[in-house]
Design goal:
By secondary structure, the protein is of the alpha+beta class. The protein contains eleven helices and 18 strands.
Length: 338
C-alpha cells in the first residue's frame, strides 16, 4: 500500500484524495493523462481504464463501479496501478457501459449556482447555497432510455452539470482544503419536472423520478483535469447546443460549496455533489423534453453522457394503466431555478 493510501485509512478526514505530486494543469497528452490519474469506465465486466490510443483496459479489480472502489479507502490509486485483464477498442467497451457511480449513497445538488442562470431568470444571486438531496434510486447511466413521467408532469427538463466525486471523507472541511478531497469529475443530467417543483416546492420530489439522476459516461481523475477552476459543461438536445458554460461562472465555486455542505453533513468517499446548471435549460427557453429526444452532456475530458427519452407506458404505472396528467392545482409558490 502506498503512503497516501495508508494515511487515508488512518485519517480519512485530512488526507487528499489525489496524490499531491499530481498537477491538474499538466499537458493533455496520453502520457500526461496516464501519469496524472486514471480515466475510468464501469462495464458489465468490471472497471476499465481508458487509454490514450483509442483503447480501454479491463482491470483486475473486484469493484462493480467507481463509488465502490472509492469506499475501499485508497482513492483511485488501485485503478491506476491495477494490471489489465484485457485490452479492447474503446468503442467495443462503451457498448457494455453501466452506471459508473451506480452504488453511490448520496447525491447532493445546489440550486441557482451560475451567474448566467440567475441573469436569465431575473433573480439576484443567492447569498448562500440552496441545497437538496436527490434520491439514489433515480440514478441512470450512459445511453439510458428514460420514461418521461407524463402521468404526473408535463414539464420534464434537462440540466447539464459538472458532478464532483468525493474521494476522502469530509466534515467541516475548510475551503482551502476542499479540492484535495475530490477524487474525480463526471457529467450529470439533473433532470427535473418543473411543474412538480412549482406545485410542491420540493426539489427532491421533482428530481427523483426513475432515471432522473443520469451520471457518466466516464469518471476522470481530478488530477487529469486541465483547469479545475474553469471546467467546461455543454448540453445538446438532438444535436443543438442548449447550454455552454464553465465552472468559472459559478456563484459558489467548488471550494466554497463543499465547505458549506460539510459545515452540516459528512460527505463520504463515493458521494456525488452536483454543482448547478448554467443558462439554457428548457425552463429558460419555454420548451421541455419530448419522447424521442436525445440529450448529451459533455464535461471536461469526460466521455459524453447521452440520455434518450420515451413516452411513459402502462408498464411504468403501478397499476398497469396509463393516466393523464391531472389539472395542476393553483399554487402561490414560485418555481425555484435549480
Amino acid at each position: 500500500m502506498s503512503a497516501p493510501a495508508a494515511d487515508a485509512r488512518r485519517n480519512p478526514d485530512s488526507v487528499p484524495a489525489a496524490d499531491a505530486r499530481r498537477t491538474p494543469d499538466s499537458a493533455p497528452n496520453a502520457d500526461a493523462e496516464a501519469a496524472a490519474g486514471p480515466h475510468l469506465l464501469a462495464t458489465r465486466r468490471g472497471l476499465a481504464r481508458v487509454c490514450g490510443d483509442g483503447t480501454a483496459e479491463l482491470l483486475d479489480l473486484p469493484y462493480r463501479d467507481v463509488a465502490e472502489l472509492l469506499r475501499a479507502g485508497a482513492g483511485l490509486a488501485p485503478a491506476a496501478a491495477a494490471p489489465a485483464r484485457d485490452r479492447l477498442p474503446l468503442d467495443t467497451i462503451t457498448a457494455e457501459l453501466v452506471a459508473p457511480l451506480g452504488s453511490t449513497r448520496a447525491v447532493w445538488g445546489v440550486g441557482l449556482n451560475y451567474h448566467c442562470k440567475a441573469r436569465v431568470a431575473g433573480r439576484a444571486a443567492p447569498t448562500e447555497p440552496v441545497l437538496y438531496l436527490k434520491s439514489a434510486s433515480a440514478g441512470s447511466g450512459p445511453d439510458a432510455t428514460v420514461a418521461l413521467p407524463d402521468s404526473v408532469s408535463a414539464q420534464p427538463d434537462y440540466e447539464g452539470e459538472i458532478a464532483l466525486v468525493i474521494g476522502a471523507r469530509m466534515h467541516r472541511t475548510p475551503a482551502e482544503q476542499a479540492w484535495s478531497h475530490v477524487a474525480a469529475i463526471t457529467a450529470a443530467n439533473d433532470l427535473t419536472a418543473r411543474d412538480v417543483m412549482a406545485a410542491s416546492a420540493n426539489p427532491t420530489l421533482a428530481k427523483s423520478f426513475p432515471g432522473y439522476g443520469a451520471l457518466g459516461a466516464s469518471v476522470l481523475d481530478i488530477a487529469a483535469v486541465a483547469d479545475r477552476d474553469a471546467i467546461p459543461v455543454r448540453t445538446t438536445v438532438n444535436g443543438e447546443v442548449r447550454q455552454d458554460a464553465t465552472s468559472a461562472d459559478l456563484i459558489f465555486p467548488v471550494p466554497q460549496l463543499l465547505a458549506w455542505i460539510t459545515r452540516y453533513v459528512i460527505l463520504e468517499p463515493g458521494d456525488v455533489v452536483l454543482t448547478g446548471t448554467p443558462a439554457g435549460t428548457g425552463q429558460d427557453r419555454g420548451c421541455f423534453l419530448r419522447p424521442g429526444d436525445l440529450v448529451e452532456v459533455s464535461v471536461g475530458g469526460v466521455l459524453p453522457l447521452r440520455t434518450r427519452f420515451r413516452a411513459e407506458s402502462s408498464a411504468d404505472q403501478p397499476d398497469g394503466r396509463s393516466h393523464a396528467v391531472p389539472p395542476s392545482a393553483p399554487s402561490h409558490r414560485k418555481s425555484a431555478d435549480r
